[in-house]
Amino acid sequence: MLGKGFILTPEQAHDLIQRDPRNKDVLFPYLNGEDLNSRPDCSASRWVINFHDWSEERARGYPEVFAIVERDVKPERLKNTNSQRREIWWRFTRPAMDLYRAISDLDRVLVVALVSRTVMPARVPSRQVLSHKLGVFATAEGSDLALLSSSFHSIWAWRNSSTMKADLNYSPSDVYETFPHPVTTVEVRNNGEILDRLRFDVMIDRSVGLTRLYNMVHDPAVKDSDIESLRENHRKIDRSVLESYNWLDVDLAHDFYPNRQGTRFAVAPSAQIEILDRLLELNHAQHERNSPKNSPQAMDRRGVAARSAVHDQEHLTPGLHGDTLF
């Protein structure tokens, strides 16, 4: 999106919809990373006008809304040196239509703020405009929520992303697309569902967002029952993900440990090193299997039989769920 003239307050948007219900077609909540991490319900604080990839003629079919864009966006767009931005001044320059087609059948999706020290995904409604500063996963499954909330994903993210001051700059191509996924179990999914409900209730009750909530989770002085319940849920998530990888010999030993972000509730440093080593091993094996020399045709030509994954974990599929990420 380019142009603040597209932005509306919720009151403006609701007023336009009340005057003409058809305006719901082009008015949406606008969720960014700040709202995701700071608001108790992870909701958008602003709305936005979105004419999708429509022609000017079709957009003019919504006269009150179009008039706002014509008044507030067009004058600035016509000064822009980019010819595309001048020619389609009533639309977003890069509307990410592939993303919205991919999630069109989903009521909710998982999103994560791309710049954050929290690095926690949340379920949010799909029928809104999602900022380019959000990583969007075309799934709302409890198993995916648990996996992306696990220490395994966090360890991989901090290893494969750059940082901005104390925040992680999450890189989907370097983190999610290289992360070896296990075949998750019913227990992983159930723990993800519990996390979703428990975390929402705590944030609403305390009127805090994800950032402030996890500041409390990582503070050893906070021993309130709701925060202890959340810590225990994260222990269960990590244990169930550990079982999905079949790494039962790793002692997670959750506790409070110092690191570069300060004191954090996390798995033991020795477990972090072991987990990272094993994820790297799986990642390398995955890369090797996907290389041209190991394509099915090449394997057949050499008469080499395909072998199971690292550590003979036949139930493990480190292959990417790449079609779920935008």
Quick recap of the structure?
With 326 residues, the chain is an alpha+beta fold.
Outline the fold blueprint.
Blueprint: E1 7-8, H1 10-19, E2 27-31, H2 33-38, E3 46-49, H3 56-59, H4 63-72, H5 74-77, H6 83-87, H7 97-102, E4 108-113, E5 115-116, E6 122-125, E7 129-130, E8 134-137, H8 142-148, H9 151-160, E9 162-164, E10 167-169, H10 186-206, H11 210-217, H12 225-245, E11 255-259, E12 262-266, H13 269-290, H14 296-302
Parallel strand pairs: 2-7
Antiparallel strand pairs: 1-3, 2-3, 4-6, 4-8, 5-10, 9-10, 11-12
Helix pairs in contact: 8-10, 9-13, 10-12
Describe the overall structure.
There is one protein chain. The chain is of the alpha+beta class. Helix content is 43%, strand content 14%. Helix 8 crosses helix 10, helix 9 crosses helix 13 and helix 10 packs antiparallel against helix 12 (225-245). The longest helix has 22 residues, at 269-290. The model is unreliable at 297-326 (pLDDT under 50).
Helix share, percent: 40-55%
How much beta, percentage-wise?
A: 5-15%
Element order: H for helix, E for strand:
EHEHEHHHHHEEEEEHHEEHHHEEHH
Apparent shape = globular
How many DSSP E strands? 12
- The count of helical stretches stands at 14
Q: Note the main sheet.
A: 4 strands, mixed
N/C terminus separation: 16 Å
List the main descriptive attributes of the protein structure presented here.
disordered C terminus, 326 residues, four-stranded mixed beta sheet, alpha+beta
